[in-house]
Predict the 3D structure of the following.
Amino acid sequence: ASNPAMIASILAIGTGLVNLIFLLSMFGFGGEMTNLVKLALNLGQKGAVQSAYTTYASKLATTAPGVVYILSIIGMAGKGLEVGDVAILIRLVNVLATMATVVMIYLYGRKYVGDRQSTIYAAMYALLPITLLMGGLDHTFTALLVALLVGAMILLVEKKYLLTYLVFALAIVLDVRAMALAPLALTYMGYRYYKDDSDSHACSKMLLR
């Protein structure tokens, strides 16, 4: 019998290695990353987001609140580190998010299509060019946004609505584009409510017969 924990671990480690190597070799230490590192360190050293807006007003004007908070945390954690080391910390956010997405695809998929197919689907996602490129987009944490949205949709399907709202709210704070999925989520919730209500009435009629 297959060991789900072992398969998930192998998928996660493989995904992490491939993504980290790709990101550091293709997007690692250019001028844009240097500016992003300086912004993160400034946010961390100031200890308050508001004070950094004076220096980086044009940069932060188009930055989502969630990104600012993540950069602030990285800046505080990266005090005393070299620019290259802080750049790796920034890249690790997307790498870890992609690993989480791959594991979610595998674990959720195996419930419906089995170990073999879910492993293939998870591995295919990990190796998609767009998956590798998402982590290299400047000034964003797109891979983290995808992980949050995938998690929110899985929770929605599993009828864990409170957690769905929480994860979806985090996704919106990270990137307002997450609102694009709101109509789909609301439509699905309406469908599930209607279906569950219909099933409940049908069950009640059968019991009354």
The first helix runs from residue 4 to 26. The CA atoms of residues 149 and 181 lie 8 Å apart. The chain has ten helices and no strands. The two ends are 45 Å apart (CA to CA).
